[in-house]
Amino acid sequence: MAHVELSLSEVFVPAARTLPEQESDNFGQWSVTVSRATEPCLLIDADTRVVAVSTSGCELLCLGCPEDVIGLPLLDGCLRLLDFTAHRGELTEQETDKIPPLLALHSGRLARGLLRVQATAAGCSDPTVDAISTPVLTGGQVAGSLTFFAEV
Fold it and tell me: Which branch of life, at top level (predicted)?
């Protein structure tokens, strides 16, 4: 019969990773990730201000450069949403409360839906996108929402 002997000396504990101040919480980490993402995505805070947006997200939504929209309110400065009628009228406040980024923020649950965005950049047509949003938690509380977009 084989004999196995085991002895332990010091236990190896990896050094704690030090993060920059902006990355010290979950929300900050998502902000950095969205800023560097190749996928079209957007991060808003609890006050519905744009915290981060990917370059491809800006291109898909015809918003210009990410620096142009960071800090703006999602609906009162960044996006103008249109209905799906031939008239393409602006959505009412009651309808905008149901868009995925805001629904995920207020309900604390996943949300998905289609959005028609009025293009603000020259040479863009009004894009229709599929939006999938999830709440982003910090300390167990909803701190914002993260939305991924796909062109329809």
Answer: Bacteria
Instruction: Tally the domains of the chain.
Output: 1
Closest-CA residue to 32 (of 41, 23, 24): 23
Distance CA 104, CA 50 (A): 15
Q: Which pTM was predicted?
A: 0.81
Q: In this structure, how many other beta carbons lie within 10 angstroms of the beta carbon of residue 134? A: 19
Neighbours of 80 (CB within 10 A): 15
Tens digits of residue pLDDT in 25-78:
788 899 999 999 999 999 999 999 999 999 999 999 999 899 999 999 999 888
Contact 28, 127 (CB under 8 A): no
Q: Is the residue at 94 inside a domain?
A: yes
Q: Work out the burial of residue 8: count CB atoms within 10 Å of its CB; fewer than 13 is exposed, 13-18 middle, 19 or more buried.
A: exposed
CATH of the domain at 69: 3.30.450.20
Q: pLDDT tens digit string along 3-31? A: 656 555 555 555 544 444 443 478 889 99
Residue 15 counted as domain residue: no
Sign (positive or negative) of CA dihedral 46, 52, 56, 58: positive
